[in-house]
Amino acid sequence: MMTLLTIFLVMLLVLTAFAVERTKDLLSAVIVFAAFSLILSVLWLILKAPDVALTEAAVGAGITTVVLLAVLAKTERYER
């Protein structure tokens, strides 16, 4: 059961990575990147690395998302 969950999360992780790279709307890219970080932190928990999972959730999904949203507020939303 855990193997199926791990495979599903890895496939979802790859899908979100491609979605971040392919989107032209920068706000959507930031939101999908936050989801990427949350999925990655769940994978770290499954791999029994709770310290890395907590750091990924705090830095990757938390602080990085806030910083990227602050930068996006000062710039244009769509890529040219």
Care to describe what's here?
Helices cover 84% and strands 0% of the residues. It has 80 residues and is mainly α. The protein has one domain. The model has no long low-confidence stretch (mean pLDDT 91).
Number of domains: 1
Question: Given the C-alpha coordinates, what overall shape results?
Answer: flat
Distance between the termini: 44 Å
Helix content percent band: over 70%
Strand content: under 5%
Please count the helical segments.
Answer: 3
Can you give the mean pLDDT?
Answer: 91
Question: How many strands appear in the DSSP assignment?
Answer: 0
Q: Characterize the biggest β-sheet.
A: none
List the main descriptive attributes of the protein structure presented here.
mainly alpha; flat; 80 residues; 3 helices
Q: How does the SSE layout of this entry go?
A:
Layout: H1 2-22, H2 26-46, H3 50-74
Helix pairs in contact: 1-2, 2-3
Sum this structure up briefly.
The chain is mostly helical. The chain is 84% helix and 0% strand. Helix 1 runs antiparallel to helix 2 (26-46) and helix 2 (26-46) runs antiparallel to helix 3 (50-74).
